[in-house]
Fold each of these.
Amino acid sequence: MKHQVVETVTLLNNEQIADNLYLATFKAPLISANANPGQFVLVETSADQYLKRPFSFFDIDKVAQTVKIYYEVKGLGTFYMSKHWKVGQQIKMQGPLGSGFIISPPYHNVVVVGGGIGIAPLKVLIDQLNAQQINFQGIFGARNKNGLTILEHFIKKDYLLSTDDGSLGQPQNVVVSLQQYLQKNKVDLIITCGPEIMMEKIKALAEAEQITYQISYENHMACGTGACMGCTKNIDGVNKKICTDGPVIQRVF
């Protein structure tokens, strides 16, 4: 949190990946220098939108001084981003914010589980796991194959894929895929992001198996710094501010 800044960044690309799904790249020297996997930024989508929108880092390149966000068009802010943002445009961005993924002490067998737009923060995490030579398995799911198109931007690996309609991978949800994987493999850390019902089921599964887990929550936010308490969530009987205590919450076994 102490390294956060408000930076005027430059939009380098705003690529449509699939229906209503976009990948935006920004030149952001200050934010990229201090960003870590699992953290997020607040982005000013347009001048007439009072509140900035929170987006997790999809990619962080400290050498190129760039960051990327992966977003779905769901409301006025993201609609404006998809239709009106132009390459070269100057945009205000605040960050990096929040607490990211924890990959220490070093884990040996990690499972990364993403569902839908919750896949967004997991690409840069996988880059880190790969750089640290930590063994990992990715399990990803979406409503249909369009929701998995973004995996073309991930490092190449035999990921376990599933879709609700069976258009790509297994016709099942990622929780079933994770259960099947745990039956055959030793795992010491599960990391997940996606729909809340999916994450709650994975949380219950990890607790039953006594496997350390990290959940990246996606809550509506206003200030992003813990002042307004608008993103407070009760987790295991304790109120957590997702913007500062999270978005990544860990339980260690």
Note: The mean pLDDT is 94.
Amino acid sequence: MFSIIKSNSASRITEIREYIEFIDPLIPKPPVTTPRFLNSAKGLVFVQLYGVIEYTVLTTISKTINLINSAAVTLNDVKPIILSLALNSELEAIYGAPKKKWDKRHELFKIFEINPFVEISEDILPTDGKNIHYPQLESIWKIFCLTDPIFHDVTFRGRLQDIVSNRVNIAHGNQAASEVGSRVTTNDLSIRLDDVSKFCSYFITVFEEYIEKEKFKK
């Protein structure tokens, strides 16, 4: 069910690993100063690391929603919190039309009499829209009613924050890529890559099991 996502995520991991292996022999040994362009190359790995995390999360959630929709379940079949996804457009309509709130409320609750099949928009990501780190993952876990640990290893929470912070600093111009890269070695980056690989595999597995065991049902 998630084989394409697994393959694409693994391919991105391999691409980053090849990049690190390419620049590693170019970096001089101390006390020779590392050229700025090589520090920049190291810094940009944080952008790549975040990219594979975001790809894995977004595509896995989209696929999960697609499979829930394909399960032919009605509103009454799913856990109550899943309704926040299934009725997203109706809930947004109430928020966006305060002068017609009672009409919108009537429309919303009338749906339960009809009890239609669940049809969730596949581009929904139940977060605040910010970069993906612990608060966003926690929100995803709550909305999908997951009971598994959020991380395969609790230490990855700090690792993820480190990756997100460095990625944001580079992308927003707060720090040059060379400045970020000067603080890490290629070995440091390889360790981070291994951690990201394990997290991505774990994340996909959690949702794969979620679908297999139909954990979205009451």
Note: The mean pLDDT is 97.
Amino acid sequence: MGAKSAYEYGRLANEASKVMKLVDDSIETILVGSSTPRLPSYPEWDRIALEEAYENVDYLALHNYIDKYDEEDLTKPPKNERDDTATYLAKAYRFDRQIEEIVATCDYVKGYLRSEKTMYLAFDEWNVHAQPEKRHRDFEVGSPIDWCYFTMEDTLLFGSLGLAILRHADRVKISCQSLLVNTIPLILTDAKGQAWRNPTYYVMQHLSKYAKGQVLEQQIICPVYDCEKIKNVPYVDSVIVDNGNQLTIFLINRTNEQQKITIEHDFNLLDQGERYTLTSSDLLDKNTREEPEKIKPEINYFSIEKHDELNVGIEKYSWNVIRIKKM
């Protein structure tokens, strides 16, 4: 009941947006796009709906959840075997590509309509996904839905998804990490009243606190690896943010070896910095009720020897946040 084609939905959304803005011209509206790039209709649905509503909406929404068992085609059932680590972490590249494909779709419609308006994106839902640890029972109060642990491996991918959004901050203006407590969550609770953090919590904490300012353009020289379906995946994922008083460097090591990083820059920085590192001895480690802090960030301080170059080593399979104040 109520299903609509992309054309029908676009026309309805266009009229609804116009009416809302007549009531209050400060209202901003978001056009619903494809719920996942794995749909056969992606991104054609987005194009058709956008052509009908382009001038009267402010954002186009996109969603994505990444699971190590997912098939690329949503019409196929989940795989019986999970992705290997290299392939799973490389899926962040597809997340980057999704943003770029939707930007291209928006810009095509802009050109097709001869519009002066640039469409921005709202990443309304994004997260990693894991198989439920507890069974859901219908009509039972408090029955868990997608109650799951996230491992260190999941956390590295989660971090790369966050960095992908930052890299496209010129077009992604709204970003909502979905689901806070108990459902593919940042925070877990149990019936006994205890609460603890999935390790993904710390990544979101760091992004929320420190990814404020201007995202800088980088020129990266880095070894790459190939998977069966994803090629040229960088060993290291990175984003640098300048808030005017401080540089924050986010680094992810996707490999099982320590990586040495050299960052050449022209900032006047103090000679000491701080670094948060999130890692674990086993990629399948997780935080549980019995061991709620098995994976948590460690902080250390380091000295900077050269005024125009920063040299750091990052641990294997790790999330890192480096913060250095300017002079």
Note: The chain has a mean pLDDT of 91.
